[in-house]
Amino acid sequence: MSAQRDGFSSTFGVLAATLGSAVGLGNIWKVPYLTGANGGAGFLLLYLLATLVVGLPVMIAEITIGRAARTDPVGAFTKLAPVRRPWWVIGVSGTLAAFLIMAFYSEVAAWVFAYVAKAVAGGLLSTDPKTAAAIFSKLVSDPAQALFWQWVVLLCVGGVILMGVSKGIEAVTKKLMPILFLLLVAIGIRGLTLPGAVAGLEFLFRPDFSKLTPAVALVALGLAFFKLSIGMGTMVTYGSYFRADQDIPATALRVMLADLVVSLLAGIAIFPAVFAFGFKPEAGPSLVFITIPAVFASMPGGAIVMVAFFVLTAVAAMGAMLSLVEVPVAVLAERFEISRRRALLIALAGIAGLGVFAALAQSRTADWKLFGLNPFDLFDFLSSNILLPAGGILICAFAAWEWGRQNFEAELGRGSPPRKWVFAALTVLMRYVSPLLIGVVMLKGLGLF
Ligand code: TRP
User: What DSSP designation does 370 have?
Assistant: First the structure.
């Protein structure tokens, strides 16, 4: 461990940073579009189940491992393993996942940035589904715009980290996120008062189980990992910055609940409008971008509020991206003993290189298909549905079997020891329930069994 290793300074700071990683485009973009595409309430229910039974234990395991090791996710598993076995593959696959996720995530952030510009110029106000869809598809199918905005995003991420203002961003995030929250409430209220809004609520909260297939279950599981930023070492890295006396289960629980509330608010903001204006819930990744402007178009002062909405979404995306990029940066810097600056440049170059394929997935690379998926969808599928859940199995196995119950409980119990039943429940979940559930859902979801 290097002498100048940074850390979080207060309990609230830890909570805020962890929440800053979890809350992002996942809540505003991914949860609504996947819920819409997979039949609504039934999918949400599966996602909730996956979060509770799998997400929470994996998150706690990751943070605990990180705090015990106090190093990057490749080094952590080597350091804690009692005998030399290649557990560091978890960190390597996590680093790979970080690149894949950033490649498409930075493009979604690019659309958000572009929409900030469009909202300022006043070109988005329409409640007509056709017009809204045309504006979006014009943006994403133009290679120049798609790449330009992705590079703006990556430059911003790099700039924030290089200028060392990531602490500043944390402070900004802390102040701005409550505003995003209130804005979502306001949009939700506006949405609920639209004629026809009830259909949206029914879609969100009345389950229709006929839509649920093994493949859908895998998507819900992958979403739980993606939402909580787990399965690839982000939480190991953040855990390594945790204070020794931090109550890890309580922190994880709070982050999970707060994150869930933001996702549900986004759903309530979007689905009533989807049905009121005649959009299609299964529109896919474009859903937020075409629906949200329609709500604003039908709202007094909507033009200004819309700018605020996309700016705040961009800020939330920045917080999440900082935590994604932190994994390859920590691994490169601490494994190869290079400066964080150089590690960052290598990471960003890699992301930009891979990101081109995702950025052009609606134009030049639209027909470059593997397993029937274009590069954007492929990167998303490989990371969320394969690498993160597989990482989850290995993290549970490592914490509960290899590192061992005693070490795990000793680290978890430092400072503020959780109650006995928490230990017992976590052990059962990490040893048997989570790995088995992930394994079965993966095999079934991929049609391998
Ligand atoms: N959780 C973030 C979101 O919902 C995305 C994210 C940040 C992430 N860090 C991660 C996903 C690490 C997986 C792994 O937007």
Answer: B
How far is the C-alpha of 299 from the C-alpha of 270, rounded, in Å? 14
Alpha helices for 212-247 (secondary structure H)? 214-228, 234-239
d(CA 224, ligand 1 centre) in Å: 10
Q: Which residues contact 210 (CB under 8 A, 6 or more apart)?
A: 39
Instruction: Compute the distance between CA of residue 98 and CA of residue 266 in angstroms, rounded to an integer.
Output: 25
**Residues 147, 323, 23, 359: what is their CA dihedral angle, to the nearest 10 degrees?**
10
186-242: pLDDT as tens digits? 999 988 998 889 999 999 999 999 999 999 999 999 999 999 999 999 999 999 888
The model's pTM is: 0.95
Taking only the tens place, the pLDDT of each residue in 325-382 is: 999 999 999 899 999 999 999 999 999 999 999 999 999 999 999 999 999 999 999 9
Cα 181 to averaged position of ligand 1 atoms, centre (Å): 18
Distances (CA, A) of 358 to 146, 158, 213, 286: 9, 19, 27, 15
DSSP string over 327-359: HHHHHHHHHTT--HHHHHHHHHHHHHHHHHHHH
Q: Hey, is 155 helix, strand or coil?
A: helix
> Residue 373 phi/psi, 5° resolution?
-115, 140
Closest CA to 93 of 343, 390, 405, 314: 390
Question: Helix %, strand %, coil % for the chain, to 5?
Answer: 80, 0, 20
Tokens 């056709």, residue located:
130
- Domains for the chain: give ranges and CATH numbers: 11-445 (1.20.1740)
State the amino acid at position 447 in one-letter form. G
Q: Which long-range contacts (CB under 8 A, 24 or more apart) does 174-181 make?
A: 174/16, 174/20, 176/312, 176/315, 177/19, 177/20, 177/23, 177/312, 177/315, 177/316, 179/308, 179/312, 180/262, 180/309, 180/312, 180/313, 180/315, 180/316, 181/262, 181/265
- Tell me which residue has its CA closest to atom 6 in ligand 1: 229
Distance 221 CA to ligand 1 centre (A): 14
